[in-house]
Backbone:
């Protein structure tokens, strides 16, 4: 008989460009892992099935599988469409029952959430959010997305939140920029401050913009606006930033300073024992957040059954 410490779980990080599958223990000790490109649903899910078949023969059966999926995806447990990919530009994936397919492939019960909620879960339990019940995890990469934890629970409404599409005021010096959001152009933070927005505005990839480039002052301003809006809505104790663009660590002090200016003294942080350095922080798990968070989801799902 296995005890809960070394019970095995499955993890799938279903991304728009690649899938990562793993078998491991809650807490992140991995026994097997594989990554492959996201292609058609049929081909990609067949590779997931191959992984779990072979890995379970070698390492043992998993109690449950946790999935962190690209969105939009129906993640509200109990909803009729739970586990299916929602309306998406990745048309081949629209309507695919990613949860059911993976559960069948692994021959195990499975639970699903968004990629950002899964990273949030990983950071909350094993990374930059340990010890806090009110957190936001924001990724700034190809898109901007976030998972919100309030009172220890991941926030859902009729759908998962879409923090990247919050509208933020455009800076005066940015008037000429058209923005990149397919739905909101230059009116939402993803349209103004995602990696592709930086590329479109400055004509070069974000990674080649020097720290002194004016791009970063503007970027810090937009990310501070996002933080200000998150703070007034759910008062998170920590906002954790990850994603490719946040590899520019000089952004952190700039975002904190710009946030202080935008809030203009509105929150009495000192009264809550909060410092800006401690409020706006980098993610700690990096690329591992997805798999670690998916193992946590699987663990919770198996424990609740
Ligand atoms: P994704 O969002 O697709 O999962 P990433 O989080 O790596 O993947 O985000 C990719 C985006 O991040 C690209 O727009 C890329 O230009 C940008 N990016 C990647 N590395 C860096 C870096 N070191 N500095 C700034 N931007 C980066
Ligand atoms: Zn948008």
Residues:
């Amino acid at each position: 008989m296995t005890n809960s410490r070394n019970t095995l779980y499955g993890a799938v990080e279903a991304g728009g460009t690649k899938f990562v599958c793993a078998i491991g223990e809650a807490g992140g000790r991995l026994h097997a892992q594989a990554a492959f490109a996201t292609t058609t649903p049929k081909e990609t899910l067949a590779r997931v099935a191959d992984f779990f078949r072979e890995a379970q023969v070698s390492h043992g059966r998993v109690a449950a599988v946790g999935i962190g999926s690209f969105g939009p995806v129906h993640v509200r447990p109990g909803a009729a469409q739970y586990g299916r990919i929602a309306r998406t530009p990745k048309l081949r994936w629209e309507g695919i029952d990613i949860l059911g397919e993976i559960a069948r492939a692994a021959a195990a019960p499975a639970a699903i959430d968004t990629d950002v909620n899964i990273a949030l879960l990983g950071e909350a339990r094993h990374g930059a959010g340990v010890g806090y019940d009110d957190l936001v995890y924001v990724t700034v990469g190809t898109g901007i997305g976030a998972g919100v934890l309030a009172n220890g629970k991941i926030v859902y409404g009729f759908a998962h939140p879409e923090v990247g599409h919050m509208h933020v005021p455009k800076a005066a010096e940015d008037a000429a920029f058209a923005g990149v959001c397919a739905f909101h152009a230059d009116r939402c933070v993803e349209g103004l401050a995602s990696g592709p927005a930086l590329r479109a505005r400055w004509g070069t990839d974000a990674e080649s913009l020097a720290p002194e480039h004016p791009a970063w002052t503007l970027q810090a301003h937009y990310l501070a606006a996002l933080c200000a809006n998150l703070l007034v809505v759910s008062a998170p104790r920590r906002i954790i930033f990850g994603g490719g663009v946040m590899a520019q660590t000089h952004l952190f002090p700039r975002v904190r300073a710009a946030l202080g200016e935008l809030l203009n003294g509105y929150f009495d942080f000192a009264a809550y024992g909060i410092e800006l350095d401690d409020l706006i922080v980098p993610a700690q798990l990096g690329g591992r957040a997805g798999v670690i968070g998916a193992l946590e989801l699987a663990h919770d799902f198996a424990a609740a059954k």
Q: What stands out?
A: The chain has a mean pLDDT of 95. Residues 139, 141-142, 195-196, 205-207, 243-245, 247-248 surround adenosine-5'-diphosphate (ligand 1) (CB under 6 Å). The longest strand covers residues 30-37.
